[in-house]
Amino acid sequence: MFVVAADMTTTRWYNIFINVHQINPYLYTWRQLSSAIADKDIEQQKALWFYGILLWFVKDALGTEVYASENGTTWYQLPAWLPDELSVTSITIFNDMLVATSTNGGLYFSDDALTWTYDDLSEQGLQCRNILFEFADSLWVITQDPLDDSFHLATSDYLGRFSVHSEPLPRHHCRRLLSRR
Predict the structure, then answer these.
(1) Nearest 5°: phi and psi at 170?
(2) Cα-Cα-Cα-Cα dihedral sign, residues 94, 100, 101, 107
């Protein structure tokens, strides 16, 4: 490949080697483990491996249901109550608990996927907008300051107590992250 520098006089030739990795799709055989676990028009869904059980959260216009399986073949519905304002796609595992955002800025917690406890973060002056990930024993979230609508990264070393990072995040980046909920 021939390259010309920004000064328009310096030039250089580079040798490029392209190694194409061929994948034979016939080496991978897929088989269906189960069919029609939930017969509904799914709006949101999330699957997690929690305490040795595969949990599948399914939200439609009527509400949210939770299905469980030990092997991915046999599924059963759990008698779980999930609030309407809980964002199914945000559910993650942190400190051996399920954590999810709420549409009104708080967080929901559950240690069994059946009962959920709401934590209103307004005491801390926060509104949690998105759970990003768990890293280095901390839960990383995007919060919004209700006073000036600025977005911030926040971390929690234990559930409910967040440390907000002082610098606001660029709004255009936050809009993309929040649209993934």
Answers:
(1) -60, 130
(2) negative
Residue type, 45: Q
**DSSP 3-state of 26:** helix
| Exposed/middle/buried for residue 96 (C-beta within 10 Å: 0-12, 13-18, 19+) | exposed
User: Tens-digit pLDDT profile for the chain (181 aa)?
Assistant: 788 888 888 888 888 877 777 777 777 777 777 777 777 788 899 999 999 999 999 998 888 999 999 998 899 999 988 898 999 999 999 989 999 999 888 899 999 999 999 888 777 778 888 888 888 888 988 888 888 888 888 888 765 678 888 788 777 666 655 654 4
Q: Which of 124, 92, 86, 88 is nearest to 104 (CA)?
A: 86
* CB neighbour class for 59 (10 Å; exposed up to 12, middle 13-18, buried from 19): buried
Side chain identity at residue 3, one-letter code: V
CA distance linking residue 64 with residue 94, whole number of Å: 21
- Could you tell me the maximum CA-CA distance found in the chain, to the nearest angstrom? 72
The single residue listed with the structure tokens 């280095």 is: 136
Burial (CB < 10 A; 0-12, 13-18, 19+), residue 58, is buried
Give the number of other CB atoms < 10 A from CB of residue 131.
Answer: 22
153 CB neighbour count, 10 Å cutoff: 18
Q: Which of 111, 103, 110, 89 is nearest to 43 (CA)?
A: 89
